[in-house]
Amino acid sequence: MVSPPSPSTLLRSLDGKMRVDLGATSVITNPKDAVVILLDHVKMEARLLPMSPGSVPVPGMPNLPGGPLQAEAALPGDVEELGKRLIQGIEAVGKRYTLPQVPGETLPPTVAEVWTCTATQLPVMSKITGGFGVRTSICKTAPVADPPQASFQIPAGYRQLT
Predict the structure, then answer these.
(1) Which of 113, 118, 128, 160 has a 20 to 30 A CA-CA distance from 76?
(2) Gap between the Cα atoms of 139 and 78, Å rounded
(3) Is-contact 137 115, C-beta < 8 A?
(4) DSSP letter assigned to residue 156
């Protein structure tokens, strides 16, 4: 079964803040202040949550490149360097992660191929293959300039929840 594309936006500032927009919800992470802001654009609410030390939650990309600038968390399994390649005109470095199978599992292993922009360190394409099928995510644009700081703040008029 092929699911329809689901548009999303991923921004990352030069100081490590990240914002992921998924429909009516946005997730802003600020590792310096150790806070995660969940924005509900329908209810115009902002929920502030403490961030676990050393983690930056990015929906759909847990523990893969494109997270914080610190060293990547080690993933179990094999990692293969794929070199550099242009992805929609953007220079990217690729890695293929093959996750180990659970003993007795008959499904094929899960393989994640992630291409990360060399300038912004944001993923520009990822392809995850496993027993569930294939999921491909492609970034349409990847500006190299620092996004406006307002992108990482609670919009005016939003009610703040803690």
Answers:
(1) 118
(2) 25
(3) no
(4) T
Query: For the whole model, what pTM was predicted?
Result: 0.53
131 DSSP 8-state letter: T
159-161 and 45-50 as β-strands: parallel, antiparallel, unpaired?
parallel
> Which residue's entry shows tokens 């949550």?
49
Domains by residue range for the chain, with CATH: 9-161 (2.50.20)
Identity at 59, one-letter amino acid code: P
d(CA 67, CA 61): 8
* Cα–Cα distance for residue pair 97/21, rounded to 1 Å: 26
Query: What is the chain's Cα-based Rg?
Result: 17
- Asked if 27 and 9 touch (Cβ cutoff 8 Å), the reply is no
Q: What is the pLDDT of residues 90-140, one digit of tens each?
A: 899 999 988 877 777 777 888 889 898 888 777 888 888 887 788 888 876
Separation of alpha carbons 120 and 77, rounded Å:
26
Determine the residue type at 162. T
